[in-house]
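With this grant's support, we have settled on a layout for protein records. A representative record follows, to show the layout.
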Amino acid sequence: MAFHDVRFPADLSFGAMGGPERRTDIVELTSGFEERNTPWAHSRRRYDAGLGLRSLDDVQALIAFFEARRGQLFGFRWKDWADFKSCKPSLTPAPNDQVIAQGDGVTKSFQLLKNYRSGEGAYGRPIAKPVQGTVLTAVQDVERREGVHFDVDLKTGIVTFHEAPLDGAEISAGFEFDVPVRFDTDRINVSVSSFQAGQVPDVPVIEVRV
């Protein structure tokens, strides 16, 4: 997939609106009951980058970024200010934030995950774009050091330990992360007079699978 490993200006995404979406197929039976199913294993996020623009300088920065990505052609990193840490937004990531796997004594590589739980429901979200220098890991609550005990691929979110964790050992991680996205339009319409009057352009951004 065509992807530029560069982040959309974080100060512009700060005021953006968006979040996760899912696709659910619903069939209503003659009895009035419903059957529900989904073709998606994972949610997908959408944002409107136009809402983060506050000045004409911001518009110029947006256009420069849009042109450098060739519109929809190249994906890029996006900071979702509502959900960019392995922990609560008010806390600092720690190596025991998220349980990502259990060791089997053989496997060395593991995908970073963020787990969402509510009641009896739970969802494990693969994290493919961790932020450099933020990934922490632990095995059985014993912290491991990046470069000494493990390496992380910032393009895939896969953590590889230099030695395979023991069978049954709990592997956890803490991190910050970006969302892989692309523009969902090949056109940006900006009117200077309208923008100065408070009307911002519509700049849709959509998550991509990587």
